[in-house]
Amino acid sequence: MLTVNDIISRLKTLDWSTEDREVNTQHSRKAAYLVNKKYNKYAVPPIYAEKIVQEEGLSLSYRHLTPPYIAAFNRKEKMIILTDDRELLKKWGNFALAHALGHWYLHDNQIDYFSSASLGKHASREDQEANHFASHLLMPKKLMQEWQWLPKQLFTSAFNVPTEGMTFRFSTV
Fold first, then answer.
1. At what angle do helices 125-138 and 163-170 cross, to 10 degrees?
2. Which of 83, 133, 70 is nearest to 107 (CA)?
3. Which of 8, 19, 91, 110 has the greatest number of C-beta atoms within 10 Å?
4. Does the global pTM surpass 0.90?
5. What is the pLDDT of residue 173?
6. Coil, strand, or helix at residue 74?
7. What is the rounded distance in angstroms from the CA atom of residue 139 to the CA atom of residue 75?
8. What are the CA-CA distances from residue 127 to residues 13, 76, 121, 134 (Å)?
């Protein structure tokens, strides 16, 4: 079974020869593949990021976060904080957790935040990489191919992702 150190070691062997401003999508996709290989069996959607958070030994708490923030990540404390707003969690919770996991695996950030704007075209390079990680983690290619026949609303429900996350993922195929 892969350990976190195995995953991180494999990620360090990937080619990082991109410019600082260029998004390294290959790295993000490979990381998502390795994490899915460890934790998921690709049987049916959804893939729950919370399960991976727990398996990694990260703590998860729910608190009031100032809008527009949905999630926060603190590496030193090994903690992910999600908003306590139930409506935002219903739509964004799984994707926000997967995005935070992307930062956990891919970056050395000590603290980071997620909002729906993190999926926008003006998102930082690191946020874009975390988005690629999250979308590939929650919607692996094999499952997407098997379930792409679903209407958009049922697809987002089956995969437990927001419409924006699904649209982002389909744009990266």
1. 90
2. 133
3. 91
4. no
5. 75
6. strand
7. 25
8. 21, 19, 10, 10
Name the pairing type of β-strands 79-83 and 59-63.
Answer: parallel
pLDDT score for 121: 78
Separation CA 4–CA 8 (nearest Å):
6
Question: What is the distance between the alpha carbons of residues 46 and 67, in angstroms, rounded to a whole number?
Answer: 27
Q: What are 101's two structure tokens?
A: 């996991």
| 3 HSE (CA, 13 A, CB side) | 3
Predicted confidence at residue 7, as pLDDT, reads: 62
Question: Which two structure tokens, joined as six digits, stand for 7?
Answer: 């995953």
Query: 79-88 burial, b for 16+ CB within 10 Å, e for fewer?
Result: ebbbbebeeb
Which tokens belong to 121?
């075209």
pLDDT of residue 16: 44
- Stretches in the chain below the pLDDT threshold 70: 1-21, 41-42
The per-residue pLDDT for 1 is 56
